[in-house]
Amino acid sequence: MLIALISDVHSSIEALEAVWKAVSGADAVLCMGDLVGYGASPNEVVEFVREEMEKRPFLCVRGNHDNAVAFGLDRGFNPYARESVRWHQRVMSVENLEFLRRLPVRQLFTDDTGRDYLLIHGSPRVPLDEYLFPWLPDGEFKSVLGYVRQKDLLVGHTHVPMLKRMGERRIINPGSVGQPRDGDWRAAYAIINTKKEPPENVEFHRVEYDVDSAAGKIIKAGLPKFLAMRLYEGY
């Protein structure tokens, strides 16, 4: 079984479509949230996801930007993010906003070997807002796993790919599809191959996409130019 891991699409239909071609052979797709925010194609991204959910197993949790757009909860966001959230609320369809509202905060997936995965955007301690960066001390990751029964915790939010091994347990972040922040502008995703034994059965990948189109749409929409320019730098 091939399981595609994606996260933090951030309203980039260009990046999502590029990743989708790369994961066309996957048996299931697991998304750790933030379908929207920052980018200029929120309706296109949500409608793409809604259609694809009818074709194969596809689980998605709610991210902090999904939450902010869906419920108007943008307190604590920086000015760029807040402006984007409010623009999203103006342009998104009622149906797509309702889809975001219905996304769960946590999801559980079981693969064909019986191994369980917990999907969450931030962390089990603070589901929407805690950042689990790769450079945190091991004690933090041990604390986080104390909230989880499953061997694999799948997260997003940082926009930085990560595989943290704690004995037989793992915390995996596939990185960001639409707004990477690890210095590589290409869209990020990961694949778990259940024919291989964990922890060696996860691979991280990057794929190029039409960044000019994604950035141009942001500028045309009147969103902060910074949100367009950062796409080229991967930060």
Could you name the key traits of this structure?
235 residues; alpha/beta; Purple Acid Phosphatase, chain A, domain 2; five-stranded mixed sheet; 8 helices; 10 strands; 20% strand; globular
Q: Can you characterise this structure?
A:
This protein is α/β, with parallel strands linked by helices. It has a domain at 2-105 and 174-233: Purple Acid Phosphatase, chain A, domain 2 (4-Layer Sandwich), CATH 3.60.21.10. It has helices at residues 13-22, 42-52, 64-71, 79-91, 94-102, 138-145, 211-220, 225-233; strands at 2-6, 28-31, 58-60, 106-110, 116-120, 152-154, 162-166, 169-173, 187-193, 202-207. The strands form two sheets. A five-stranded mixed beta sheet has the order 3-2-1-9-10, with helices on one face. Helix 3 (64-71) packs across helix 4 (79-91) and helix 7 (211-220) runs antiparallel to helix 8. The radius of gyration is 17 Å and the shape is globular. The protein starts with a strand and ends with a helix. 44% of the residues are buried. The model has no long low-confidence stretch (mean pLDDT 97).
Secondary structure: number of strands: 10
- Identify the strand order in the major beta sheet: 3-2-1-9-10
CATH fold label of the domain at 2-105 and 174-233: Purple Acid Phosphatase, chain A, domain 2
Number of helices: 8
